[in-house]
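We treat protein structure as text, and this decision shapes the records that our systems exchange. Such a record has a labelled line for the sequence and another for the backbone structure tokens. The record that follows is passed on verbatim for readers who wish to inspect the format:
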Amino acid sequence: MGFPVLHPGRRRGASSNMRAALALLLLLATTQAAHRGRAYVREKVCQEYRMLGKENFRTLTIIANSRKYSNGTFEEIGHLVREIVSLAETCCADGADPSCYDAGSTALSVKSCSADSPFPAHPGTAACCAHEGLERKLCLAALRHPPQPLPQYLQPSDKELCQAFRQDPREFADRFLYEYSSSYSQAPLPVLLGSTRTFLSMVSTCCISPAPTACFLKEKLERKTLSLLTLTSNRICSRFSVYGKDKVSFSYLASLAQKIPTASFEDLLPLAEDAAEVSSQCCDSVAEDCMQKKLLEHTAKVCAALSARDGRFADCCRGKNLMENHFCILALPPAPAPKLPEASEPTNKELCGKEGALHATRSLFELARRHPSLPDAVLTKLYDSSGKLREECCSTKDPSACLDSKRKQMEAELPPLVEKASELCGQYNKLPFLEFKKRLRESLTQTEPEASPPQLERLLEQRVSFASTCCLPDSPLLLCASKVSSGLGEVCKQESCLLG
């Protein structure tokens, strides 16, 4: 099969092949190398192709392109992989024409731009195809599908795994690599590579074992930390991909504030900034242990800072496995709303000063800790609106007049939004689903007395859809942002909304 299953006995060590593979995929994943000349790219690719061999090169090409085009079909990825491997095999052979690689990659870009292209579709392809030559290749190389809303991979039973493996080991491995890599496409490359490698090794070992059940149990226990790392890092890096570093920091801060609302802004901000730094350093890194090392260091900091302050954090931090501790902290539900004194609002001078962003973040932190059920999608929408408001007002001739005007409008718009979203998510997280839906229908009947039965049913389904999608901690970010914007549009109707 290739790289993931060649040496099951050595899979826990860092092999020279893995380092070579990561170096190769870093090269293929970046476009900057192309600016150093076509000969440079050809020589690097051919050097790695010869060192890895065709099968390992092919395996890594499946992983890389399944990540890159996570919404592509198995057949589309297969077409692309065959073309890339064939190009390397032909142009890296002894005596191959020096122009072979450039000519082949040009033909590949032309094929990508054809109306009947067999490769994965992307909305940006047409714009790339308007260019020619190197510019077109660089543009196509930079395309990548957004994160999937939630991982789609469902692991079959041990019996089903072995049946598929025995029927056609190569087909089984190819399909697994595609399904797993596209499902966890945002997990850092070294994490994904290690996870697929050990999984395929487990299957190839246990399916020929005289005691497969015991074998799978043992191997799954050994893979538990790596499985959690894959799941967690995919979630972390999906958030980083959509939000960027600053908004990741705020989102994590708000989440901590809702889980431990008695902690101060000064207690939690450094932890949030550290979490954002982990994402920034490791999501695109090919260093083999970056994510695991930094994430465990971060978990140790969270446990040291918060265990003594909150029993739930202390319970999560008791375990010896820091990866499991981190997963436990992520899964903590919001705490009950505390009784806190009214928070002071930042002054206009503070908002437009050097640390305006920090003052705005503190204000939103205070909102989050007082409304633990307020979902991330709403809080990050407020974060975006706050930034736009400061940008708009602080550049005017009279920032105070602008901010005072916007503040009055915000005071009218914000409380109903916060109250509705908090109540909706609070009930969804507390009640059984059917009871939640029943109470929501009763509430809508009272608050919308003039609505017809079809209108009430539409409102009910809209809010149930929002709650079931966006009130959970691992909610799909892009979908929930769209739902919040759509909901605000309904509330604002034809009027101008600051939050819309």
User: Anything to note?
Assistant: The two ends are 52 Å apart (CA to CA).
